[in-house]
Amino acid sequence: MTIWQSKLAEPRTAGTGPSRRARRSRSAAASCVAAVIVATTGCGADGGSTAQDPTAGLSDSSMSDAQKSELADKKVTAAEYEAAFQRLQACFRAAGFDVLNVSRTAYMNDFSVPDAAMQSGVYDDCYAREYGAVDTVWQLAHEDESPTNQMYKECLRKRGVEPAQKSEDVKKQMDEADLSVQDCIEMAAGGTGG
Q: How far is the C-alpha of 114 from the C-alpha of 116, rounded, in Å?
């Protein structure tokens, strides 16, 4: 089985039969989130985000009416997030594919799909129609809980800095402490960083 952390990640082998990891990994999601924020909100004069609308810039041309409805108030509840995920699974089943290895991490769904679903375009179609925008808004709203933000907080603690709660403040603290992402990765692996 070929498992993918994201569409851009290098594969690793596990189990039998072809499939790809369909959930965007936290690091891939962070990259997507950063791209969405920069592309849709820009930055304020103080370097902070001016984001007021997490749905700004998201195209609804391929979204189902249910997904559009879930985004109408510009936020996503846990019930809406799960409903969108159920529709995603139903979309795959209707196209003849199963969603595999479904689990819920601290705040997001983790799953795999057969490689054929990726190659045929079913993954892209179902994800965009039933789940993609809801997933993006949900992850943006829960960025402070992300494993990446937790790693950054631990990195700051190791440097004697009490971390803030919000991820955007943690990132500012990292800049002020002259800590790079690479420093934090090395520290998380047991090194000293920078």
A: 5
CB 37 within 8 A of CB 25: no
* HSE of 19, CA atoms in CB hemisphere, 13 A: 17
Q: Does the pLDDT of residue 31 top 50, yes or no?
A: no
Give the pLDDT score at 194.
63
pLDDT in tens, 110-165: 899 999 999 999 999 999 999 999 998 998 888 888 888 889 999 999 999 999 99
State the DSSP H helix or E strand holding residue 132, giving kind and residue range, or none if neither: helix 132-141
Name the residue ranges covered by the structural domains of the chain: 2-43+63-143, 147-188
- Cβ neighbors of 66 (< 8 A, separation 6 or more) are 83, 84, 87, 130
d(CA 89, CA 149): 29
> What does the alpha-carbon distance between residue 169 and residue 158 come to, in Å, rounded to a whole number?
17
Q: Are 174 and 184 spatial neighbours (Cβ–Cβ below 8 Å)? A: yes
Residue 144 DSSP code: G
